[in-house]
Amino acid sequence: MSLPDDHDLRLRMLVALGLLVVLPFAFVYTFVVLANTLGIALLEWANERPYHGEFYVDPVLLTVVVGGGLVVQYWFGPSAVVSSVDGRPVDANAYPDLHATVTRLAAQVDVAKPEIAVVESQAPNAFAVAGGGDEHIVVTSALLEELDEAELEAVLAHELAHLSNQDAKLMTVAWLLPTITYYLAIAAFYVLYDGTTVTGSFRSIACSSSSAIALPRDTWISPPRLTVAVKR
Description:
The chain is α+β, with helices and mostly antiparallel strands and about 230 residues long. It has a single domain (about 5-200), classed as Zincin-like. The protein contains seven helices and four strands. It has helices at about 5-45, 60-85, 95-110, 140-145, 150-165, 165-175, 175-200, and strands at about 90, 115-120, 125-130, 135-140. The protein has a four-stranded mixed β-sheet, with helices on both faces. Strand 3 (about 125-130) and strand 4 (about 135-140) form a beta hairpin. Helix 1 runs parallel beside helix 7, helix 2 crosses helix 6 (about 165-175) and helix 3 crosses helix 5. The longest helix has about 40 residues, at about 5-45. The radius of gyration is 23 Å and the shape is elongated. The two termini are about 30 Å apart.
């Protein structure tokens, strides 16, 4: 990934890239510390017996997982992000004016014309994603309906600037950390829910081994969504 010529932007991108590498490690090991303190204490309280052992994450394994995750996100992130917001790829036959505007603006800033996707939404939003040779500009139907030609050109030029400056690739890779956080939060929810269930409804049910059995309830949690607001 080549860096832009702007010194300040290049510095911000390097800092952001460093945070992308460091933050997953910080998050995982913070989670491990909490699990070994609050989590084990909760298990001991719920089961009324000491818990021998601790949670551990191998640093080499974590490095492979984080590094591999960032690489996978770089190559497959654009399509994953577009799919996560129900983006629908559109061709020039369906949106001729939109394609013509993007083609003209892309030529002016000397970037390859990106793929275009439209999201059916009442919020006037737009964003750019890039990685692995795949670039997209995503706009919502409300954006196309509410903005006039000059305003729409300004928004599209802004998104093309993200592609030209390469920071769209960084933002696409950054989508990985919230996704990891989401699934870890689900795991923590089930751990805590099982513990509180043991001490609640099922605490009076004792087995011969003095252990309690709890069945988690079915829980539906909607997947994370990505929304980028357009400033007007």
